[in-house]
Amino acid sequence: MRATYYTALVEDQDFSPIRPLVDWLDYNGYSLVTKPAKEYTDATGRRRFKGDMDVELAVDLVQAASYVDHAFLFSGDGDFVAAIEAVQRKGMRVSVVSTIKSNPPMASDDIRRAADNFIDLTELATLIGRPPRERTDPKLDYADQDEGR
To answer: Which residue in 33, 54, 94, 104 has a CA-CA distance of 20 to 30 Å to 3?
Structure first.
């Protein structure tokens, strides 16, 4: 089995909020496909970054169809429908993992219809989610908490 994570990274930034995730994935055996994010200014004059990885992911998916029989795509983007249909014609099954239980839904109807199987992330929350953090007793001061009292 292989797992690949696709993301654009902002260069020349002291801290990137995604960097700890990318480092953890790399350390734990995931393949990473990255490229520099492109900077632009939006209509309101605010500095923004864009880093679309659709083409890289679609090309890798099509190439993998010659040796992979089942792929799991963690995206709800309808732009992947053509790539899904192309690999299905080569015999690959594609399960899409996203959610329709958000507002707005994160998975397009088109990708849900194209997939061999659709898995809603909310159904996986108990399996892969973090448990809610326990609150400390406000009656204890910090020194007592640090010493385990």
So the answer is: 104
Please report whether residue 137 resides in a domain: no
Residue 147 lies in a domain: no
Q: Give yes or no for residue 7 having a pLDDT over 80.
A: yes
Q: How far is CA 52 from CA 22, 26, 32, 94, 118, in A?
A: 16, 20, 15, 21, 23
- 73 close to 84: Cβ distance less than 8 angstroms: yes
Instruction: Give the integer Cα–Cα distance in Å for 42 and 80.
Output: 26
| pLDDT tens digits, 44-75 | 999 888 888 999 999 999 999 999 999 999 99
The 10 Å CB-count burial string (b at 16+, else e) for 72-100 is ebebbbbebbebbeebeeeebebebbbbb
Nearest to 72 by CA among 111, 128, 29: 111
Number of domains in the chain: 2
